[in-house]
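To close the chapter, one final illustration. This time we ask the reader to focus less on the individual chains and more on the assembly as a whole: which components sit near each other, and how the overall shape emerges from the parts.
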Amino acid sequence: MDLSAINPILLLASLMVAATPILLAAVGELVVERAGVLNLGVEGMMITGAVCGFIIAVATGSPWLGFIGAAVGGAMLSLLFGLLTQFLLSNQVATGLALTLFGLGLSALMGQGYLGIRAPAFPDWHIPFLGDIPVIGPIVFQHDPMVYVGVLIVAGVWFFLNRTRAGLILRAVGENHDAAHALGYHVRRTRMLAIMFGGACAGLGGAYLSLVRVPQWTEGMTAGAGWIALAIVVFASWKPIRLVLGAYLFGGVTVLQLNLQAAGAVFPLEIIPNTMLVGVILVILLQVLNLRRQNINYWKLLMFSILCAIISIALHGITVPFKVEYLSMSPYLATIAVLVIMSAGRAPGSLGRIFHAAR
Amino acid sequence: MIALDKRPQPSRAWSYAAPVLAVVLTMLVGGILFAALGKNPVEVIRTIFLDPLFSKNAWFYRPQLLIKGAPLVLIAVGLSFGFRAGIWNIGAEGQYIIGALCGAAVGLAFHPMESWLVFPMMIVAGAIGGGLWGLIPGILKVRFGTNEILVSLMLVYVAESLLAAMALGPLKNPEGMGFPGSRNLSQYPSAANLELISGSGMHWGVVAALIAVIFAYVLLARHIFGFQVRLAGQAPRAARFAGVNPARMILICMGLSGALAGLAGMFEVSGPAGQVTIDFNVGYGFTAIIVAFLGRLHPVGILLAGAVMALTYIGGGIAQSNLGLPAAAISLLQGMLLFFLLAVDVLTHYRVRFLNKAVA
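The assembled structure is written out below.
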């Protein structure tokens, strides 16, 4: 397998860029879900943000204004979701789906005259001193500003949720809206603000795709990024710091898959049993670290790993050429795998439930 | 000040009126949107909703109603069971693709052998393929507690990649001069899903959709499973006490909706579409979600809603070619319809009360 064409430093550097849109959308959704609202419309808000940001950036020539426009666009669309779920008490799952379908149509309509245009350049920052550190510098400190904005938002959300009074109220509303209401907190107001924050973040994530990552506008360009963001929130057990881990993991899978496509590498079949072995190790690791407590039959696990090892030896040296169509499945398959391994977190108590204060 | 009081029972009258009101509201707001796009709103609305049925070219469009409506109804009927029970299969698009691939693969494997057995085998393959694809999120939910919404949706993207791989690889037409896409099944009599009555649009998929509607109606109204589905949706705790096995319910609902979506895909690939191509799927799986809700998750309602939705596809196509209406405007209109329906539905479950300032 010829992997020498892949530069590990560039790989890790582009990992951060690939993870940023998902991280931005996911951190917004995390706040929404901590407030007890399940907004499945992330994909729709993301793509609307992508087109809003693109249009404004092209019109003004400023990517920064584009990002602001994208945040406003995403928030406006989420307002629609908020109105329906909070005031007209509609089902959140159905409304979220409607938001996604609506957003996909809206964005395609808005972006009609903008196909094939390039977005204005958004130069990378070369952070002095830090950017000059060998290896770490190019990986971490030579990106465009939005990468750091994303990380800052996550840090801000962590601080807000865990260290401020308003964050405590938001969590209370999410855990038990009836109790929060009885204590005199404004359930609807809190949730509307959270929903709008989620929409703005999703918009930013979408605009990052159309202004930095691609950087062009095409219909349906988010290609499931919004749904992956939703999955990462579950993966992160609704905790902001773990969100970064999850997003970078997905960035890694995406970037690796793109690099393998470019390198025209071949796929050694022994990777399949080897991955299963890694999975076994991961399960044991999670057990030891107490992240997921479960009764495990270690005897079965041992037999399984021996079987994997035998298959691995049997398949040694047999390769299949990589095909783009199969490689492009990997981010989605990775999402499913991660959901299977990590779905032990406890969701906010009132997540997805309709709040109706009886008078 | 306006207050909402929860009705003890959902209003019957409003549950019938809400979809109609939603369609009317969509026409109104859609008209405003079209006016903003510089079109004559009355003309566009008439083109979308009336021309396919009543214009002088309607003889050409009416059969299309069945062709577009059948997959929507077939998929939506399957989805409605899960949606009633709170099991959200939103990956019907993927199950539709896999059903088409399995059906086409069986058909192509027998090419050019002529036998009446080929088509029934394709039907079975399509249903099994779609059903198994739908069971994946079901099994993962039962076994590992994963969220079926996310997994079923991720599998749509996987299925799309698989479709591309198949159209470019194993299922590619060996006599196709290197173009992507399979042999044309409609030119292979044993595997073709041809019109049953010439010029009517009536193909086996339409028959299957009608059977599914009748079957679903009987199941829902007369069978214990239908009762359990309704119970699990309305009172999950009561359902548990009544001995409804949630795991079994999830597997049946996911498998059933997957199988019906797979069937829809299979009938499409062997009939109207004719061949496996990279862009074979056109979003029926997602539109069917709107159809299911618009039809109030009831088989007969879904039949009507499927017809309305098929109308927007056909009328949208006419408006696109005759009036230059962008294709995206139609998907926007469909999304809007679901929004309005969900908004109007507040009247079904709640009673609106106007409060006096003095009292409040």
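Residues 1-37+328-360 of chain B form one domain. Chain B has two domains: 1-37+328-360, 38-325. With these observations in hand, you are ready for the problems at the end of the chapter.
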